[in-house]
Amino acid sequence: MILTVDEAGRALADPACYADERRLHDALALLRRESPVHRVEAPGYNPFWAVTRHADIMEVEREHEVFLNAPRPLLATAEFDEINRQRQEQGIALRTLIHMDDPDHRVIRAIGADWFRPRAMRALEPRVRELARRYVDRMVEFGGECDFARQVAVHFPLYVILSLLGLPESDFDRMLKLTQELFGGDDDELQRGTTSEEKVEVLLDFFAYFQGLTEARRARPTDDLASAIANARVDGEPLNDFDTASYYVIVATAGHDTTSAVIAGGLHALVEHPDQLERLRAEPGLMPLAVDEMIRWVTPVKEFMRTAARDYELHGVTIPEGDSLLLSYPSANRDEDVFKDPFAFDVGRDPNKHLAFGFGVHYCLGAALARIEVRAFFEELVPRLGSIELAGTPESIATTFVGGLKRLPVRYSLV
Known about the structure:
Elements: H1 5-11, H2 21-34, E1 37-40, E2 48-51, H3 54-62, E3 67-68, H4 78-90, H5 104-113, H6 118-141, E4 145-147, H7 148-153, H8 155-165, H9 172-183, H10 196-219, H11 225-230, E5 233-234, E6 237-238, H12 241-272, H13 274-282, H14 287-298, E7 303-308, E8 312-314, E9 317-319, E10 324-328, H15 329-332, H16 367-381, E11 385-390, E12 395-396, E13 405-407, E14 409-414
Helix pairs in contact: 1-2, 6-8, 6-16, 8-12, 9-10, 9-12, 10-12, 12-14, 12-16, 14-16
């Protein structure tokens, strides 16, 4: 299918496009080549500029005082943008780190920062490796065939992040369902409903759950991240209910869904590139590089939006004050000017300057944890893997924000 540049731009507002890798990357390659800063007018959406080159996205991320997260941090329909604006005015809107700019962003980010520093990650690593072993053992219990995405990949990182928060295991299934409804809001199979009101209901359910958690941790503080969030103070005052719940939401969801997408997509890449699997078997020391290549390959966060605080010239195009930009991370991570043979899956790729975790002041808080989880899982799986092949057709989530495979049927032998 031959696309025009305008059709390629509109594809970025089509959730189904992200479930069709060839269509997505054809559109992104065309935009990088012919219109790397491209104005998009898509039906049902407020206009935005699609930014597709690695260097231009880096420039926008560096200029965080010019390009702001608020008021439009994510691509959503015009209807949902309006509902969100109204809820912001009422003080009852989701307000996570990805919605904030400095100085609020810097202060709120610091609340959880210590829990994701190298020292804390080293202390957590034995638990992560124990859980990785448990889920590889579970693959043995499945008898040599499973839907890896649904039966393994979604559960392992969820268990890790909710254990870090200190949530009871009895609540994990509820959190999984809410997370999938939140990020799968455009997917016919995962969404709760099709209306903006039904999508807002998912957030309200998150808020209701976490409000109860906040009350419990304030009444009886514990030694977990949930307690640190519940009892945090800014200028001597506790966070309000919505900011507290928003913090939980971003940790619980972003800390789970992105990593599960990398684990499922990483295994799919190894199945599709058996030479790279053999290379990893023969050279286990390549695993840190392989992890970053899996992260680049999958790029689970598809976009963030920024809004120009003043007129700004980007790649020869003037972005007027108040206009929004979509930063396309899958495009940056296939940029021919940055990556040698970008459409090759290379477990030894070095350097690997991917932008899957963002860049600058908004760099992903949980990046180190994600790398530890992916590395622990594949260091447990690869040495025990005798053979593996697809047992059906993989399927991806329809989304414009966060996603990856929702089905990965595989047949395998494990020792």
